[in-house]
Amino acid sequence: MTTTTLDRRLDRRLDRTLAVYRTEAVHELLKLLRIPVFAISTIAFPVMFYVIFGLTFGERTAGGVGVTTYMLATYGAFGVIGAALFGFGVSVATERGQGWMRLKRVSPMPPLAYFVAKVVMSTAVAAIIVLALSLLAVTVGGVRLPVTEWGTLALVLVAGALPFSAMGLACGYLVGPNSAPAVLNLVYLPMAFASGLWIPISQLPSVVQVAAPFLPPYHFAQLSLGTFGASEGGSPLVHVGALALFTAGFLAVAAWGFRRDEGRTYG
């Protein structure tokens, strides 16, 4: 066999593998966008909250900037976290309960394609939320930022889907399909409030301000606010390091849950 023939075979195998990953990711996104409850709760809620709390109090300031600018970052973080937690956590829990994972295992699809597709879905929905909020902020809220700050803010917000996808994956392996939405809401909403995503962290009770650094959304919000100089504490490296630690912890929990399911099914 010549080197050229071997290279062609490797290229064809790589093309087929990438096609599987691409197809799985596209259908994962279409599946969730066709579920009205997911689209409304995940995409419309942060936009609605931004209108109510951001645009309504637009004449006020927070963190040294206008409220419309400040809450573009915090409600952007709120929306991205929701997309990752519910898009990942609820769907994994539901598909585990339906036996969908066993069907995937007997298909020729690489197991990793299933998880990569959900990460792609989370980041794509996060990008839609950030785009919707940005358009609203510019056209109605009068938010004006340098292009570099817009780009950095959007990049930080969309990248924030990764640690919370890990958190959603861990939850998806810890809870059942019926309890997943309730459990995630019990985690998501108090965590968002205590991390300063709805109200600036400096305006929350002192006990909440002390607890906030132990919550991953706090570090995500401060990173986002820091892109235009409105961070209320900590250096960007500390926030990145904290999110990396949280991500590693959630992935470890998810890996344990995956192995537990595998043991119950095939062990």
From TrEMBL:
The record ties this protein, via InterPro entries, to:
ABC2_TM, ABC2_TM_bact-type, ABC_2_transport, Nod_factor_ABC_transporter
List the transmembrane segments: 32-53, 73-94, 115-138, 150-175, 182-201, 237-258
The protein's UniProt keywords, in alphabetical order, are:
Antibiotic resistance, Cell membrane, Membrane, Transmembrane, Transmembrane helix, Transport
Q: How does it sit in the membrane?
A: Multi-pass membrane protein
Q: Does the keyword Aminoacyl-tRNA synthetase apply?
A: no
Q: Where in the cell is it found?
A: Cell membrane; Membrane
**Ranges of residues in domain ABC transmembrane type-2:** 37-261
**Organism's domain of life?**
Bacteria
Q: Name one Pfam family in it.
A: ABC2_membrane
Return the similarity comment.
Belongs to the ABC-2 integral membrane protein family.
Name the UniProt record assigns to this protein:
Transport permease protein
